[in-house]
Amino acid sequence: MNTLRSGPDSIYDILGVGFGPSNLALAIAVEEHNATAPPGERLHAGFLERQPHFGWHRGMLIDDATMQVSFLKDLVTMRNPTSEFSFLCYLKERGRLADFLNQKTLFPLRIEFHDYFEWAAARVNHLVDYSAEVLAVEPVVTEDGEIRWLDVISRHPDDPGRTVVRRARNVCVATGLEPHLPPDTVLSDRIWHNSELIPRVAELAGTGAPVRRALVLGAGQSAAEAVDYLHRSFTGAEVYAVFAKYGYTPADDSPFANRIFDPEAVDVYFNAPPRVKQSLFDYHRSTNYSVVDTDLIQSLYATAYREKVQDRERLHILNVSRIREVRALDDRLDVTVEFLPTGERTVLTADVLVHATGYRSQDIGALLGETAKLCLRDDEDAVRVGRDHRVETAPQVTAGIYLQGGTEHTHGISSTLLSTTAVRAGEIRDSLLSHRVPAATALA
What we know:
Elements: E1 7-12, E2 14-17, H1 21-36, E3 45-48, H2 87-94, H3 97-102, H4 110-123, E4 128-129, E5 134-141, E6 147-155, E7 163-168, E8 170-173, E9 177-179, E10 191-193, H5 197-207, E11 213-217, H6 221-233, E12 238-242, H7 255-258, H8 263-271, H9 274-283, H10 294-309, E13 315-318, E14 321-328, E15 333-339, E16 344-350, E17 352-355, E18 359-361, H11 364-368, E19 400-403, H12 408-411, H13 421-434
Parallel strand pairs: 1-7, 2-3, 2-8, 3-4, 8-19, 10-17, 11-12, 11-17, 12-13
Antiparallel strand pairs: 5-6, 6-7, 9-18, 14-15, 15-16
Helix pairs in contact: 1-13
């Protein structure tokens, strides 16, 4: 196991909190810089991840699910097309380059892209401590009142009862998204968020308990995938899709609409006035939010129609509907579903309820604690963030706080997606270099 150095005498130029694709891309950008930079210009970097090893949406790695972004939007190519960390280099090393090209597709299997991430993470393993959950980020105040450093406090990988303190000139928060659930929802063996789908299905299948009916709440890609996966996994069960729309909405992946994910679109969004930002976000929600790939929509419809023809309906679409109440009993769930146009309510007995209700950015206040009070906020109480992804802070703060994610209000719809990950990592690396304190005064 790798252990990053700690203590006030070992000051990092950048400590990353979380090690998903965003901070992995930053680690690679730093590694590539250090490979060619003179010793005095290299960045001392480290990353802390609470998981025991690299993992990205493992609960939704359905075996035949494909990515929704091109493989060229990997960890590096949009920033450095010659990088040895590209998806194509991964394929070459795995001996599948020709095989992949023969598929004539831009969209790899999701399980393959996850393997690519693991491959890249292994190559920068010396920069990461796993099983190191960050508990707090505390400001370090000098005698003259300047906050030049931040102390990052994490659990010790070998002893969760102990903590480790590491000092950094900058931190980069990339803790990803957290599952969003309806109010008062209590997760259990029968009530899941779709982020747990695959392990929960495997666990339930392993018990041998019969699954007669499963419900999925939600109308987005993950919801449709969950419906399809449950329908295939439990071949004797009825599967109900419940959502407020009339039908699944196709994702807009047309060429002009996709330009909203271009790096240049971030500049346009960032410099636009608030009302234009909101308009752009509203106009292009259909590229990412509560939408489904057309092929999957057609597949689900074909399944439902085929079952109707055969008079063996297992797939049911409860559109224009809401779940109003869930009663958890010892051996089942009683789920009350309301048909919104009439208000008619029906109680469905179910074995499983899956909430495919999306994700939301985590509140940095809970992680940063006292340091969060040093972050400036706008009139809507959102954190003010510069174009270089550096949080605007109080005047006495010279330490840097960078955000990867949670910046849709400043950087646009691609902030939580893979599309601009490579470019953003390069922008943060360059910002770190531009703010760097000369070596002679760094410890003064």
